[in-house]
Design brief:
The chain is about 50% helix and about 20% strand. It is built from 5 helices and 5 strands, in the order E-H-E-H-E-H-E-H-E-H. It is globular and about 40 Å long.
Length: about 140
């Protein structure tokens, strides 16, 4: 799975306060070629992102300290090209609407099927590449 001409692996950041979720997703996405880092809270994940940008960020909505909406805002400020996907077991229409207004790529309700998340991540990568190629054409 590559995202640019240098053939580097797509970097995927997963933030979920349930360690088992992160570990399971890490196993699946590493196996199909992603470079994956997992964290159980936002601040250390964002520190890692500041050092090495990620292409795709999957974050839980409800976490102690920094929630997924705050993670979304900070990721968008640090790396506007990154695509952010929020996953949650606490879906409210207002929260989803707020997330889309703030630039979330997708909002997925738990429990979700792994294939559903894979499809969203593949769409996010394609969207990111489409935007990048348009930017390069404008230069």
């Amino acid at each position: 799975m590559t995202v640019n001409d240098s053939n580097r692996p797509c970097r995927l950041l997963i933030i979920d306060d349930e360690p088992i979720v992160g570990k399971r997703l890490q196993q699946v996405f590493t196996k199909i070629g992603f470079e994956v880092e997992i964290f159980t809270s936002g601040p250390p994940a964002l520190e890692s992102m500041a050092k090495h940008p990620f292409d795709i960020v999957v974050t839980d909505l409800k976490m102690a300290g920094m929630d997924g909406i705050e993670v979304l805002a900070r990721v968008r400020a640090m790396n506007p090209e990154a695509r952010v996907i929020i996953i949650t077991g606490y879906a409210q229409p207002e929260t989803a609407s707020d997330a889309f207004e703030r630039g979330v790529f997708e909002f997925i309700v738990k429990p979700f099927r792994l294939d559903q998340l894979k499809d969203v991540i593949i769409r996010a990568m394609a969207d990111r590449e489409l935007c990048r190629s348009r930017l390069n054409q404008d230069r």
